[in-house]
Amino acid sequence: MSEEKEMSEKENVEALAKILHDAERVAVLTGAGISAESGIPTFRGEEGLWKTYRAEELATPSAFHANPTLVWEWYDWRRGIIGSKEPNAGHKVLARWENIFPEFSLITQNIDGLHEKAGSKNILELHGNIWRLRCLEEGTIIENYDTPLKEIPPRCSDCNSLLRPHVVWFGESLSSSVIQEAFQSSSSCQIMFVIGTSAVVQPAASLPLTASEAGAKIVEINPDPTPLTSYCDFSFRGKAGEILPMIDNELKRESSVLKE
Ligand code: BJW
């Protein structure tokens, strides 16, 4: 990293920490990138899950209808990876922030459960959770942490119908209460962090635009630019597990200086 870039990143961190110190309403939208440093593959990009598997073969209701075993094999494989991983420094900073801002909203597109594992309590999981299974017939939802699953495809213990992952596939609606709450937090926050998402999947990608239109400052943390970058007040080109602790350390420093 050149000295010039290092300086400007440091200055950006300092400027952001000053704003954050006075903030009362903070919202965060995370995507697969925040879990990349924990060892969980992202979806798109060079190492993305969909370089090997085509989305339309696996993450749609019609794919599941056509071949539930194939889809479940993919989820079983992912559950095996996710189950062995731990939250990283980025997840941990966000868990801490829940306790320091008067209003803090953590909105995630991730289904891996790592925010919860890091200690975050109030999480809006837009796309569901890989550790929950839903009965196709009765709609009942169960938690299941087996890796590997005992049977593929798994079946409901009550009615023997197929269980499906309790996640949101392309063409499916998100939970209306969850997405409503996410838009509400986005439209009322003063600062919104957008971390580790390619910002191409709707309606999640519209949340930062809503925040920006309502006057919030937008902070992006991502090694690569995204369609949102031009709307951002702060763009950190780097890894969430490195940038978030830098911001958090500066925020702690700012708070201790002001207390003296
Ligand atoms: C790092 C890093 C590090 C790496 N630190 N960063 C309006 C317009 C156009 C289309 C639509 C629209 N409304 C709805 C649609 C259709 C569709 C859609 O958006 N399609 C687009 C692709 C065009 N949306 C839907 O179908 C949604 N349903 C819906 O809206 O219902 C109503 C409706 C339906 C149909 C038509 C109209 C209305 C549902 C979307 C469900 C998405 N589901 C998935 C799978 C979940 C289950 C599973 O995991 O198996 O969710 S798809 C997949 O993408 C997953 C993710 O949550 C989601 C977003 O991906 P994410 O998190 O951004 O990951 P990546 O890999 O894309 O990006 C990672 C980023 O991290 C990169 O930028 C890296 O650079 C970065 N990174 N390392 C920080 N260390």
Descriptive report:
By secondary structure, this protein is an alpha/beta fold. The chain contains 10 helices and 9 strands. Strands 3-2-1-7-8-9 form a 6-stranded parallel sheet, with helices on both faces. The chain has a 3-stranded antiparallel sheet with strand order 5-4-6, with helices on one face. Helix 7 links the parallel strand 2 (103-108) and strand 3. Helix 8 runs parallel beside helix 9. Ligand BJW binds at residues 31-33, 36-37, 42-45, 48, 59, 109, 111, 127, 167-173, 196-198, 200-203, 221-224, 226, 239-240.
Major sheet details: 6 strands, parallel
Trace the largest sheet across and list its strands: 3-2-1-7-8-9
- Give the radius of gyration: 19 Å
Question: Helicity range of the residues?
Answer: 40-55%
Bulk shape: elongated
- Measured distance between first and last alpha carbons: 34 Å
- Low-pLDDT stretches: none
Mean pLDDT, rounded to whole units? 94
Ligands, deduplicated: ligand BJW
Secondary-structure topology with pairs:
Layout: H1 3-22, E1 25-30, H2 49-52, H3 55-58, H4 61-66, H5 68-83, H6 89-97, E2 103-108, H7 114-118, E3 123-125, E4 128-135, E5 141-143, E6 163-167, H8 176-188, E7 191-195, H9 206-213, E8 217-221, E9 234-236, H10 240-259
Parallel strand pairs: 1-2, 1-7, 2-3, 7-8, 8-9
Antiparallel strand pairs: 4-5, 4-6
Helix pairs in contact: 1-10, 6-10, 8-9
The protein binds ligand BJW.
